[in-house]
Amino acid sequence: MSDGENGTARSARDRPHEHLLYRLTTILLLAWSAVAAASLWWNVHRETVEAEVIAHREAKAYFVTDRALRLWSTDHGGVYVEVAGKTAPSPYLAALPERDVTTPSGRLLTLMNPAQMIREIDGYGTGVGRARSRITSLHPLRPENGPDEWERAALQRLATGEEEVGEITGDGEVARFRLMRPLVTKAPCLKCHAAQGFQVGDIQGGIVVSLPMAPLWAIGRRHTTTIVAGHALLWLTGVLGIGIGRRRLAREIVERRAVETHLRRRTADLRHLFDHAPVSLWREDFSAVKQRIDALRDQGVTDLRRHFLDHPEVVRECAGLVRVVAVNHAAVALHRASSQEELLAGLPKTFTKSSYEVFREELVTCAAGKTEMEGEAVVQTVDGEVRHVLIKVFIDPHTPEWSNAYVSIVDLTPQKKMEAEIRDSEHRYRTLVESTAAILWEFDLLAGRFTYVSPQATTLLGYPPEAWTDLDSWAAMIHPDDRAGAVDHCATAIRRGQDHALEYRAVTATGETVWLRDVVTLILEGGRPVRAKGVMFDISENKQTEAVVRDALREKEVLLREIHHRVKNNFQVIVSLLKLQSRHIDDPKLKAAFEESVTRVHTMAMVHERLYGEGNLATVDGGDYLQAIVTDLQRLFGRGARITTRVETDPAPLAVDTAIPCGLIANELVSNCFKHAFPGGRTGEIRVALRRTKGDSNGSHYRLTVRDDGIGIDPALSLAEVKSVGLRLVTTLTENQLGGSVELRRDHGTSFSIEFTVPSEGDPHDRA
C-alpha cells in the first residue's frame, strides 16, 4: 500500500474522533461560558449582599455605642446641663421635683434624660450620609417619638420575641439600612416612665439605627466593575486554553492511537512470549487472599507467621482463594495437564506439603508489604509425579488489592538429581580421601602454591593443611639429611615433565621422624607442567619391617650357611667312616656296595657344599650340580680316556629337596653306565641333559635324561620288577620325591627319561 493510501486510511479512521473532539470542544466552550456567567452573577450578588452585611455590621456597632450612652446616662439618673441656647427644661420632666437646680454661683441647671441627650448629640452631626439613631414606641412619651410604618411593624415583631429587625428601606440615594433592637425598661427608667404603666423588664419600644446605603453601593459598584473585567479576562483565558487544549488533545489523540496500536502489538507479543516461554508462568489474582489477611488483622492477629504455623488450615484456605487467571504452555507441560483449563481450577491440585510451606512464607512476605519473593518447593504433576521447582512471585505494586500477581516456576528436578549425584560422588570421594592413610595434595606450579592438602596432613605430620603454602613450607618438613636430595629430585623430574616417586624422611611437628613415599603425577598443558598432584604414604612401618626382615634374613642366612656347612661336614664324616670301613672288607661285592654308598652320600653332601659356598642359600644351579656329579664319577671310575661325558642343561634353579633326588638319580644312572654299558674296554659316550619342557600356573616342567650308546640293557628287564638297588632307588626317588615318572628306552643304547615338575611357589614338599 502506498503512503497516500495509508494516509487516506488513517484519515478515515481519525474522522469520527475529529467529530467527537469538535462536539466536545463546543460543549466545553458553552460550559465554560456558563460557568463564567454563573461566577460573575454570584460575585455581583455577593457584592450586593456584602454591602447589606457591612451596613448591618456598622449599624450594630453604632447601636452598641448609642446603647452604651443611654445606659450610662440612665444609670446616673440623667445628666444636668446648663439652660442655655437650644437647651431648655423638658416639659416631660416637670413632675420631677429636682428637674431644675441652681448652683451656688447662680447657674441654672436642668435635668436631661438619655433620649434628649442622644437627640442633642445627633444634632451636632450634619448631612444625609451619616448614621442616625432614635427611640420609638407604640406608646411614646413624646409625640415626635411615634413610629412610622416600618418602625411600627418592627416593634410588633420585637414584641413577638425577635431580638432585632434589620432591613433596607427606600431606593437610590435615600435608601438606608435600618436596624431596630428592643428598649427594655430598667429601674432608673421608671423615674420618667412609671406613669405610663411600664415595669422593669417591659419593652418600652425600640432603638432605631439607620445609615445610608449609597456610599456602600458605590464601593460595591467599583468592585463589580473589577469583577466583570476579571471574569471577562478569565473567560477569554479559558476559551484560549480550550482552543490550545483542543489542538493538544487532537495531537495526543493521534499519538494515543499510535501508542494504543503499539501497545496492542506489544500485548500480542507479550502474550505470545507468555504462552510460549520455556518457563512455567502463571498469572493469579490474590485479592480474596488479601481480604482474608485483612480480616485476620481486624481480629487482632499481629504475628501472621505464628498464626499460620499454628493454623495450617488457614494456609490451605488461602491457597484455595487464589484465582488462577492464566497459565502458559510450559506450565501445562510441567504439570502434565491435559489443558490450560485443568490448571485454572486452582492451586491445591498441584500443591504438596512443601508447596504449602513456601506459600505460607509467600503470604507473610506479601502481608509485610513486599512485592517480590522466591523459594524452592516440591510440587506435583496432575498424575502425581513429584518435581523440585524454583518459585518466584511478583505482585504488581500498582494493584494494592493484589489482583495482579505473576508467578514463574523453573523445574529444578534434573539439576537436583545432578546435584545429588555430585554430592554423593563428592561424599564418596571425600570419604575415600579422608579414610585413606595418606596425604593427598595438589600444587599449582605456575602460582607456586598448594591448592589442596587433605586433612590427613594434620594426623600424619601434625601440620594443618593451611600450613602447606609453597615449596619452602614442604621442604622445611623434610629431614635435613634428605632435604637437598628430595628437592633436587622433584625439580629435575618437573623440569623434564616426568611423573616420579621418591622416598624421604620428614620431621613431624612434634619432632618425630617418619618415612614418606611421595608419588607425583604432573598435569601438562601444551607440553608444559602446570600442576602437580600426588599422594604421600607413611612407610615408616614398612621401613621398620624391612630392617627387621633384613636383620632376620641376615641371621637366617648365617644360620643356613652354618646348617649347610655342618650337614656337609657330617656327610663327609659319614663318607670317611664308610671308606675307612671298606678298607677292612675283603668281600668284593660288599666292598662295591660300600663304595656305592660313598658316592651317594657324596652326592648329597655336594648339594649342601654348593649352598654353603654360593650366595643363594635356597637353590642350586641344576646344570652345574649335574656337571660336578658326572665329573666326580668319571674321576672315580677312571675311564675318561675311552668313555666321554657330556652334560647339557637349561637354566634350572633347584631347591634342596629337588636337587638331592635329581643328583641321586643321576648318580645311579651314570654309575650304571660306567659299570655296565661299556664292557671289555669298549668306548662310548654318556650324555646327561636337563631340559625345561614347559611352564604354567602349576610350575616348571623338566625332563632329566641319561643316555649312553653302549651295549644296551637286558630287553627282559622291567622297571616294575627290577631287583637292583640302584634302579629301585631311581624309581622310588622319581615317584615319591619328585612326583614324576620314569621312561626307559632301548634304541641305540640305553636312555632313561625322568619327567617331573618344580612348583613355582609354595612349599617344595607340597606336591601331588
Write the layout of secondary structure elements.
Blueprint: H1 3-75, E1 79-82, E2 100-102, E3 108-112, H2 114-123, E4 132-136, H3 149-159, E5 165-169, E6 176-184, H4 190-193, E7 203-212, H5 214-276, E8 280-285, H6 287-298, H7 304-310, H8 312-321, E9 323-327, H9 329-334, H10 340-343, H11 353-367, E10 372-380, E11 386-395, E12 405-411, H12 413-435, E13 438-444, E14 449-453, H13 456-461, H14 471-477, H15 480-496, E15 500-507, E16 513-525, E17 528-538, H16 540-582, H17 588-613, E18 619-621, H18 622-637, E19 643-649, E20 653-655, H19 656-677, E21 684-696, E22 699-708, H20 725-737, E23 741-745, E24 750-758
Parallel strand pairs: 19-21
Antiparallel strand pairs: 1-3, 2-3, 4-7, 5-6, 6-7, 8-9, 8-12, 10-11, 11-12, 13-14, 13-17, 15-16, 16-17, 18-20, 21-22, 22-24, 23-24
Helix pairs in contact: 1-2, 1-5, 7-8, 7-11, 16-17, 17-18, 17-19, 18-19, 19-20
Describe the protein.
The protein is α+β, with helices and mostly antiparallel strands and 768 residues long. The longest helix has 73 residues, at 3-75. It contains 20 helices and 24 strands. It is rod-shaped, with a radius of gyration of 72 Å. The strands form six sheets. Strands 9-8-12-11-10 form a five-stranded antiparallel sheet, sandwiched between helices. Residues 762-768 have low confidence and may be disordered.
